[in-house]
Specification:
The complex is a heterodimer. By secondary structure, chain A is α/β, with parallel strands linked by helices. Chain A has 9 helices and 10 strands. In chain A, a hairpin with a 2-residue loop joins strand 4 and strand 5. Chain A starts with 12 loop residues before the first strand and ends with a helix. Chain B is globular, with a radius of gyration of 28 Å. Classes of the chains: A alpha/beta, B mainly alpha. Chain B: Pfam families: BPD_transp_1.
């Protein structure tokens, strides 16, 4: 279950997870996780619900605390030290299933809040950066609206722009299209594909297998809190090795 | 389009939107739907409407048309079936200032003037430098007002708090309560949700203690029991002790209201703030509290209104607020007239109602203004 050598670059690993274990109370939710991610890698994590895939990426920015093992992100080990946690969170952006925009702030304020208060950028600079990213996600004209006035797809694109405004080195996506109407999934995936083209390091928990095939350079399959199989997408989909993976793929790919 | 039950169907013309039937919208539609929808409801409307009109007419008659507006106590004796407003007129200064010394009353006027200007300035949306006015009113004004009223600064002679009374006392007690209880309540609510055991249990104990004891008991303790524990000769102000009791009592209630707001927020808001690297205090200040407080504006204003009315309880420890002053003035044998007590209490009721209703309306206005189209 070791990491594959990355064919495209020999860059430094930005995320190193070794022998990581996590429990919710008595429930062993993540078991012996080993994972290494290098700069520019695009990883899709899939698996049945309850397999621990969301919990895994939430451990990477310490929204969840692990009990055993080691997680090093951007050269900083995640411990109880708040300074370490805040450093990692500055460098790691996250997009949630339910968007989690701040409803009391406008779209523009959502995007500038963290750059101003965490990165200490001047307001004008933060707003210029925010507009740049809102243009990239194709909704600059909504900048003065409140999240409650936007559609789900637009909200998720704002959420992506909000994370990008912190100019993170890594982006985590926790089922970014699961809460969207079918008509809006494509606009969000398009933005994510464009982001992948810029060379961003991405970890994406998703059930969008089309996205995994075209964008990922590694697919990880998890079940029961463990990494069962990981491979390049074409190998993973065409030639799955474990029975559990075969069953999963047959169930989600039958239509 | 006659048969849509066949399997094959393609709509060629789109159906246009039409206005709703006239009988269901507009004033007539509303009256029909809400007042006269059934014969029984029509009957109820007529009966309740009649009763309402009759009692409003009676009240207006007593309060205004048949009331005594000029003259002295003789005029009131002559007309027992109307309010005796001349009684209020004669005693008005006392109702406002209590026993505050006459030559020093300009200080009270000044404080009240600054208070009202400041409140309107802060409350009026389009006013310039609103933040500064608000900051001044919340942080500096209470100290300046206390200095002005008590004296001892700027060479002003001291007016002991035992001489304060009437409406000014009501204002002092309620405003100190309001200004202290909100920030203290917020801190207590945050502390109660903290994971740190000492902070958490301290806040829980504080809240449960002050909330679990009747306000009257707190006032009695502050006035009569607390001094027994002081060393002989040391005594700190009776009013100040009552104020602290009031403020803590209100803060405990406020903490629970704010906690309700904090719990109503989605976990995702905390996580989004964390994931952006905001520290605890920044995420509270910028993300969590603005939403939580907005959600509980009705509860906060409810607590303020309750506090404002509870100030009348200082009566039982010998402080004469507005109600206390009116209560005392009624006992004057010169005004021992049937309509005088009713008039006095009506005056108190109208004054309190004006302030409470004003707070209530302002809270509605703020809620509408802060509504960003987000319904959860």
């Amino acid at each position: 279950m070791n990491t594959l050598p990355n064919p495209e670059s020999r860059a430094q690993p930005v995320i190193q997870i070794q022998k990581m274990n996590k429990w919710f109370g008595q429930f062993h939710v993540l078991k012996e996780i080993d994972l290494e991610v290098v700069t520019g890698e695009r990883i899709v994590i899939c698996g049945p619900s309850g397999s621990g895939k969301s919990t895994l990426i939430r451990c990477i920015n310490r929204l969840e605390e692990h009990q055993e093992g080691q997680i090093v992100v951007d050269g900083v080990e995640l411990t109880n030290d708040l300074k370490h946690i805040e450093h990692v969170r500055r460098e790691v952006g996250m997009v949630f299933q339910h968007f989690n925009l701040f409803p009391h702030l406008t779209v523009l304020e959502n995007c500038t809040l963290a750059p101003i208060w965490v990165r200490k950028q001047p307001k004008a600079e933060a707003e210029a950066t925010a507009m740049k990213y809102l243009e990239r996600v194709k909704i600059p004209e909504q900048a003065e609206k409140y999240p409650g006035q936007l559609s789900g797809g637009q909200q998720q694109r704002v959420a992506i722009a909000r994370s990008l405004c912190m100019q993170p080195r890594i982006m985590l996506f926790d089922e970014p299209t699961s809460a969207l109407d079918p008509e809006m999934i494509k606009e969000v995936l398009d933005v994510m594909i464009e982001l992948a083209d810029t060379g961003m390091t991405m970890l994406v928990v998703t059930h969008e297998m089309g996205f995994a095939r075209t964008v990922a350079n590694r697919v990880i399959f998890m079940d029961d809190g463990q990494i069962i199989e990981q491979n390049k997408p074409e190998e993973f989909f065409n030639n799955p090795q474990s029975d559990r993976t075969k069953l999963f793929l047959s169930q989600i790919l039958q239509h | 389009m006659k048969n849509q039950n066949t399997v094959f169907f393609v709509r060629k013309e789109f159906a246009p939107s039409r206005p709703a039937p006239a009988s269901t919208v507009g004033v007539l539609g509303w009256i029909r739907n809400n007042l006269f929808s059934t014969p029984f409801n029509s009957l109820l409307t007529v009966v309740v409407g009649g009763l309402g009109a009759w009692s409003i007419w009676g009240a207006l008659d007593w309060l205004i048309f048949n009331a005594v507006w000029v003259g002295g106590n003789e005029a009131c004796k002559a007309n027992p079936n109307g309010a005796c407003w001349t009684f209020i007129g004669t005693r008005f200064d006392q109702f406002v200032y209590g026993f505050y010394e006459k030559p020093e009353r300009w200080r009270v006027d000044l404080v009240i003037l600054v208070l009202f200007v400041g409140v309107f300035w802060t409350g009026w949306e389009k006013a310039p430098a609103r933040r500064w006015a608000g900051g001044f009113m919340l942080i500096l004004f209470p100290w300046i007002a206390w200095g002005m009223l008590y004296g001892g600064i700027f060479g002003l002679p001291i007016v002991e708090t035992s001489q304060w009374g009437g409406f000014i006392l009501t204002l002092v007690v309620s405003l100190i309560g309001i200004i202290v209880s909100l920030p203290l309540g917020i801190l207590l609510a945050l502390g109660r949700r903290s994971n740190m055991p000492i902070i958490n249990s301290t806040c829980v104990f504080f809240i449960e203690f002050w909330r679990g004891v009747p306000l009257i008991t707190i006032l009695f303790m502050a006035a009569y029991v607390l001094p027994l524990f002081f060393p002989t000769g040391m005594n700190f102000d009776q009013l100040l002790r009552a104020l602290i009791g009031f403020a803590f009592f209100a803060a405990a209630y406020m903490a629970e209201v704010v906690r309700g707001g904090l719990q109503s927020l989605d976990k995702g808001q905390y996580e989004a703030a964390d994931s952006l690297g905001l520290s605890y205090w920044k995420s509270m200040r910028l993300i969590i509290l603005p939403q939580a407080l907005k959600a509980v504006i009705p509860g906060i204003v409810n607590t303020f209104i309750g506090l404002f009315k509870d100030t009348t309880l200082v009566l039982i420890i010998g402080l004469l607020d507005l109600l206390g002053m009116v209560h005392a003035a009624i006992a004057d044998p010169n005004w021992s007239i049937r309509s005088v007590p009713t008039t006095g209490y009506a005056f108190v009721a109208i004054t309190f109602f004006t302030f409470c209703y004003g707070m209530s309306r302002y809270s509605r206005f703020i809620e509408d203004k802060l509504n960003t189209g987000h319904q959860r």
